[in-house]
């Protein structure tokens, strides 16, 4: 792109940037090698003719959108296949694809084939025997068959053990009979299921001789390979229009005594022998393996979506000028408003935090799955608990911050051509799919409470939970990044020990363990959030420190500023919790008073109102206890504002370093050249209504109406 076509404000911003953006790109990509591979892949895909839409998707009918997305999917996957390296490990492939979101250049609302790669193939890999893998993987990889993952039913999504689809073994014919006994047992949601896939992995309850043996995966052909007609005994359709994912072809599926051969049960973990003997796996939860994989991948996917949204919003904020605070001076760039920086810079830091945590989590995932392959399940519970914390936190934060990016673009952010609304639509889906967030936080709480129980009995705490065994003492608030991270850990310890006490109290009062759990569940989700925040913050800091040593001083400085910003932002967001993290300098009663003070402080902050009398008496109490002080909070606030100011000159450089091509951003507001107004007008002219100066409805309805003739 020639420099003179780039908006002058953006040119100035780029000239101001004091670090090498290419170096940051390489850092985010996990090395120069991966930047090159990603760019090659993007170049190859984007040079395929017919992949990018001339007519924006939003002007197409529902049916046209689907047909268009299938047309593009074929071209897209053909190109990807031509670049596949058969010998590459899944680890290497994931690293290459870590920051590859070239799909979003092609599909604003995702492809109907996405489940084939993200869940169908991983399930065959994780749940199939070697023989099954050899047969099905070849067909699936070559896309001779197209598959999806059919687990959720109309009646149950969260509660997998409540799934109703039956797979009954018939030893006489050595077949499994799939049946949907009620409307609530119809599969509902799977991507690509409606009209795209001809196979799917169906999660169903296995019955042998009238006895249930739990939920297992079955490879089921649902359409004829030639005619693509649904097979006899199979009812298929699409579930209809949604907030997003409208080109994903999410479908429903019902069975009427549909028979499949015995060997279509994916039998790596549990088996049905010919005579109907059931051989249980070492752990029934291994069947849930694909979900753990996708939860891990989602953290990375949130980093990408958020990075995309904030690139659009920061570039637009650099070219947009509004208001005139100083008379006779030009209108400032809206990026100079500190409130705007507050909305946006945390989104940059959060995408960094998610990238770094996602890679760290991926490495744990990869190592635990290698251990599982050798029969060692020791670290599976911790991986599950981690995924159940980080998937919700990353989706909650990304969703909130993407919406903030959209709002930060004012009215133009509301345009679909800005591509912020669709990005929000995709992100918010991840709040629900692959385990609804509250439910996952409660799963994580279950692991934390269990680990705490073990700890109290003297069992060692492992891995990321090891800190829970530390004596929760932070005696002096020093306001340092490490000190704040330590405070977050102390908060998690305190919340956990407190909820365990509450659970015991509830049970003592006569509640069943289940009812006590439900009554304490608001606090339990808070425990998981606290643990998850402690992990996110400390991994972000420690991994950045580890890698920063090899970077140039200017980039190191910027990255550490971003870590500081992230930590300070969350300390201020959770200032009530920070008060919880301090230890009384005197006695036991003091601790209770101090906690009450912390609570009242937090409540007042939440309502935005601090009563002076309560404040003074609280301040008097505070003098007795080593608590964070009003001055400490003010210092944090000042530091936060200073950090925004320090980051401001590098803001455009920071988002440029995400290295998203214009086709990938797909946004009138966020393109590299900053010609947002021209692009908004160009996009407006694509509206079919602008094809003619007078719409026929004028003569048909408006004119007669206006003349009183209707
Ligand atoms: C390389 C290419 C990649 C391409 C990538 C492209 C990237 C794009 C990003 C991805 C986009 C993908 C689109 C995905 C579309 C959505 C697909 C879906 O939603 S599909 C549908 C997704 N649907 C959902 O996610 C449903 C959510 N629901 C569930 O997962 C479960 O029902 C449950 C976990 C909530 C409870 O299960 P329940 O059976 O009632 O269990 P209990 O509570 O009774 O706990 C018993 C014990 O088991 C333990 N344990 C549990 N799970 C696990 C595990 N996984 N492991 C280990 N352990 C586990 C638990 O800790 C406990 O231990 P303990 O205390 O006894 O020691
Ligand atoms: C865009 C999208 C794509 C999807 N793709 C697929 C797919 O390809 N394949 C597939 O199989 N599925 C898919 N799903 C389904 C998805 O996995 C489920 O919707 C998800 O697991 C949530 O389950 P649910 O809908 O039953 O929610 P529910 O469990 O009914 O949740 C409703 C509310 O109840 C609460 N709740 C439920 N149980 C508890 C509990 N134990 N304790 C406290 N609160 C609880 C939840 O927190 C939530 O607030 C998709 C969903 C979406 C939105």
UniProtKB/TrEMBL annotation:
Entry's Gene Ontology cellular component terms: peroxisome
Name of this chain's protein: Acyl-coenzyme A oxidase
Main location: other
The Acyl-coenzyme A oxidase N-terminal domain, residue ranges: 20-146
Binding site for FAD: 152, 191
Domain Acyl-CoA oxidase C-terminal: 482-582, 620-706
Protein localization: Peroxisome
PANTHER family noted in UniProt: ELECTRON TRANSPORT OXIDOREDUCTASE, PEROXISOMAL ACYL-COENZYME A OXIDASE 1
A molecular function (GO) term: acyl-CoA oxidase activity
Cofactors named for this entry: FAD
Family note: Belongs to the acyl-CoA oxidase family.
Pathway(s) this gene product operates in, as recorded in its UniProt entry: Lipid metabolism; peroxisomal fatty acid beta-oxidation
Protein's GO biological process: fatty acid beta-oxidation using acyl-CoA oxidase; lipid homeostasis
Catalytic center residues: 434 (proton acceptor)
Domain Acyl-CoA oxidase C-alpha1 residues, every copy: 288-449
Keyword Flavoprotein: yes
Keyword hit for Oxidoreductase: yes
Pfam families: ACOX (PF01756), ACOX_C_alpha1 (PF22924), Acyl-CoA_ox_N (PF14749)
UniProt keyword terms in alphabetical order: FAD, Fatty acid metabolism, Flavoprotein, Lipid metabolism, Oxidoreductase, Peroxisome
Protein species of origin: Papilio xuthus (Asian swallowtail butterfly)
């Amino acid at each position: 792109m020639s420099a003179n076509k780039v908006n002058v404000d953006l040119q100035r911003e780029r000239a101001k940037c004091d670090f090498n953006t290419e170096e940051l790109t390489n850092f985010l990509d996990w090395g120069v090698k991966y930047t090159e591979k990603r760019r090659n892949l993007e170049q190859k895909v984007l040079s395929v003719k017919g992949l990018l839409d001339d007519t924006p998707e939003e002007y197409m009918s529902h049916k046209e959108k689907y047909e268009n997305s299938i047309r593009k999917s074929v071209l897209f996957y053909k190109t990807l296949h031509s670049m596949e390296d058969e010998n590459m490990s899944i680890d290497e492939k994931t690293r290459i694809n870590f920051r590859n979101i070239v799909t979003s250049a092609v599909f604003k609302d995702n492809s109907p084939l996405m489940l084939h790669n993200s869940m169908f193939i991983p399930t065959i890999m994780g749940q199939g025997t070697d023989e099954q893998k050899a047969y099905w993987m070849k067909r699936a990889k070559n896309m001779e068959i197209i598959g999806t993952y059919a687990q959720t039913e109309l009646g149950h999504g969260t509660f997998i053990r409540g799934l109703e689809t039956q797979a009954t073994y018939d030893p006489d014919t050595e077949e499994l009979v799939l049946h949907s006994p009620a409307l609530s047992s119809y599969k509902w949601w799977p991507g690509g299921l409606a009209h795209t896939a001809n196979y799917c992995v169906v999660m169903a309850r296995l019955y042998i001789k009238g006895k249930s043996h739990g939920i297992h995966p079955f490879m089921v052909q649902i359409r004829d390979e030639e005619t693509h007609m649904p097979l006899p005994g199979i009812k298929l359709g699409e579930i209809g229009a949604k907030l997003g994912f409208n080109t994903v072809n999410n479908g429903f599926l019902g069975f009427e005594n549909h028979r499949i051969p015995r060997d279509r049960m994916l039998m790596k973990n549990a088996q049905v022998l010919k005579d109907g003997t059931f051989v249980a796996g070492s752990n029934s939860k291994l069947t849930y393996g694909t979900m753990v994989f996708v939860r891990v991948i989602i953290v990375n996917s949130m980093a990408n979506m958020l990075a995309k949204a904030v690139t659009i919003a920061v570039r637009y904020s650099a070219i947009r000028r509004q208001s005139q605070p100083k008379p006779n001076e030009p209108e400032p760039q809206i990026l100079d408003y500190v409130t705007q920086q507050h909305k946006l810079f945390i989104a940059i830091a959060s995408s960094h935090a998610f990238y770094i945590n996602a890679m760290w989590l991926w490495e744990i995932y990869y190592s635990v799955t290698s251990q599982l392959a050798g029969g060692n399940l020791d670290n599976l519970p911790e991986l599950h608990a981690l995924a159940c914390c980080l998937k919700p936190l990353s989706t909650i934060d990304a969703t909130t911050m993407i919406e903030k990016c959209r709002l930060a673009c004012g009215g133009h952010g509301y345009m679909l051509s800005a591509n912020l609304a669709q990005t929000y639509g995709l992100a918010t889906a991840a709040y629900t799919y692959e385990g609804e967030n509250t439910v996952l936080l409660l799963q994580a709480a279950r692991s934390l409470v269990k680990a705490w129980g073990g700890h109290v009995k003297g069992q060692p705490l492992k891995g990321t939970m090891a800190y829970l065994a530390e004596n929760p003492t932070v005696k002096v608030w020093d306001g340092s990044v490490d000190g704040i991270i330590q405070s977050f850990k102390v908060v998690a310890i305190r919340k956990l020990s407190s909820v365990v006490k509450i659970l015991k109290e509830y049970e003592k009062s006569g509640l069943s363990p289940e009812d006590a759990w439900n009554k304490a569940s608001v606090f339990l989700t808070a425990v998981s959030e606290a643990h998850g925040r402690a992990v996110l913050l400390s991994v972000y800091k420690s991994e950045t420190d580890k890698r920063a040593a090899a970077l140039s001083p200017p980039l190191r400085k910027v990255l550490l500023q971003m870590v500081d910003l992230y930590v300070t932002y969350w300390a201020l967001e959770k200032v009530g919790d920070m008060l919880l993290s301090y230890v009384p300098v005197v006695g036991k009663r003091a601790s209770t008073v101090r906690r009450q003070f912390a609570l009242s402080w937090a409540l007042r902050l939440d309502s935005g109102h601090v009563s002076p009398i309560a404040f003074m008496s609280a301040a008097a109490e505070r003098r007795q206890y080593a608590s964070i002080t009003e001055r400490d909070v003010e210092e944090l606030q000042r530091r936060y504002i200073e950090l925004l100011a320090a980051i401001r000159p590098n803001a455009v450089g920071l988002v440029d370093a995400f290295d998203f091509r214009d086709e990938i951003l797909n946004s009138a507001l966020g393109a590299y050249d900053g010609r947002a107004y021209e692009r908004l007008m160009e996009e407006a002219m694509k509206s079919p209504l602008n094809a003619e100066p007078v719409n026929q409805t004028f003569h048909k309805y408006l004119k007669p109406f206006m003349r009183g003739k209707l």
